[in-house]
Design a protein that fits this description.
The complex is a heterodimer of chains A (309) and B (255). By secondary structure, chain A is mainly α. Chain A has one domain: Orthogonal Bundle (ABC transporter involved in vitamin B12 uptake, BtuC), CATH 1.10.3470. In chain A, 73% of the residues lie in helices and 4% in strands. In chain A, the strands form two sheets. Chain A has a two-stranded antiparallel ribbon with strand order 1-4. Chain B has 255 residues and is an alpha/beta fold. Chain B has one domain: P-loop containing nucleotide triphosphate hydrolases (Rossmann fold). In chain B, 38% of the residues lie in helices and 24% in strands. The two termini of chain B are 35 Å apart. In chain B, the strands form two sheets. In chain B, strands 6-7-8-3-9-10 form a six-stranded mixed beta sheet, sandwiched between helices. A four-stranded antiparallel beta sheet of chain B has the order 2-1-4-5, with helices on one face. The chains are: A mainly alpha (309), B alpha/beta (255). At the A-B interface, helix 5, helix 6, helix 7 and helix 8 of A face helix 2, helix 3, helix 4 and helix 5 of B.
Amino acid sequence: MDIFTQQLINGLVLGSIYALVALGYTMVYGILELINFAHGEVTMIGAMVALTVIGVLMGVAPDLPGLMVVFGGLLIAIPACMALAFGIEKIAYRPLRRAPRLAPLITAIGVSIILQNLAMLVWGRQYVSFPPILPRGQHEILGAHITDLQIFIVVLSFSLMAGLWLLVERTRLGRAMRATAQSREVAELMGVNVDRVISATFVIGAAIAAIAGVMVSAYYGLAHYYMGFMLGLKAFSAAVLGGIGNIAGAMLGGLLLGVIEALGAGYIGDITGGFLGSHYQDVFAFFVLILVLVFRPSGLLGERVASRA
Amino acid sequence: MADLLVVTNVTKRFGGLAALDDVSLSVGEGEIYGLIGPNGAGKTTLFNCMTGLYSVTSGQVLLSGAAVQGLKPHQIVTRGFARTFQNIRLFANMTALENVMVGRHARTRAGVLGAVIRGARTRAEEAAIHDKARELMDYVGLKNKGRGLAGHLPYGDQRRLEIARALATEPRLLALDEPVAGMNPIERRQMGELFLKLRAGGVTLLLIEHDVKLVMGLCDRVAVLDYGRKIAEGEPESVRKDPAVIAAYLGGEAA
């Protein structure tokens, strides 16, 4: 088996999930210059809700095909996360719209902790496992394995990203989002209902996060009340890598980070002579984050923040 | 002539400073109304109070007889009040055409659902937004300049683009904040022609301007602000001869 190709595939799969979550960070940052630390938890809630629904569906309709069951889980998890993000923005962030930037940032961390603890109360401390109901086919390409699930994750992620790109570039709402990102005041004076645009931004990001949450739990086979924390941090790093506030940047940053992480995990053992193993995988995301912040704080595709009016 | 805009006893304080002190004026339907005065006289502050950016300390602003206080800026736009900015404030990273399309926001509806599902109605609306924006670009003299980024347009074109964007909201009253600042005499004359064309098209114009010649030539009536107070109002000729106005512009006591 070719380790390089294998890790590249794994990285691409992981990276497309990071990219989806990173989009939520970057869209909100683009409009509000707020780092919505609760976004990782929204992803977690998406996974948890979906798993609960999946469990119920398997109980009532044991004959339903696995894909349908997961689809049913998504069908509930997506609106649940959209409602959650709508509420978070309205209750926690909107009252602080005119406050110094530190206030909503701290609030975001607070919301994140609250959601984690709520999830712990509802779903418990133990890992919730993702039932093995999805097709488990495996294919061989270029000496590496790729599963049905991996293909599915990559294809769905790329479709979602393409869809979001079209939404932002080609629709009335997308134009309003871009206008609001450039100047909230002027957008408002041109008739854009800025509050509604901001709500829509949170809601769209949350819908994508719910899907990403289900993907992650399906991929690793489990979910946990704490899973949003690390996932959120990595996705945030991905957003910074691509240039926070830049939508194409989040996509690129997510994919790159996934690949870097997977390749790093694949080779770290060889490089350090076995001293460090692949469980040091998480180090790479933050190593990348530090490098970006030191050498190119605006990210790969980001504009210099100072150039903003 | 019905009054489209009525400003009654508006005062705006920033701390102890009264940027506007008991200002009243009214703009009739179809007028070109000039607002002049030295720098810092409160002209732009008045614009900001009228468009909902600032809340007034006291007084009232009526648009077509309805008070605009307490309305959000985007709601005031929907009531038919659009503006441009003294220091150009385009969405520089969007194309020129997209800037105008944003202006259509006030008159269109498609939301999150429409953006995701894109049914026939949404697509028809999108096409209409696009066509209207193109039409307005032509109207202000920016034919075929829609594709480039707004920030890359020449200065004079940026001013025109701001007007097109404001027109996209279908205003009854268009407030222009120093629309010919920094332009050469030829461009100024062309802008003056555009204003007359706008008025002929049924838009009432409220004009902040330093170019006295332009104001005197175009405006039906003029108000003069100085230190936040209205010191004169009337037809351009009489205002020009007003001793208080001469004193405000030249400094010192009235001759």
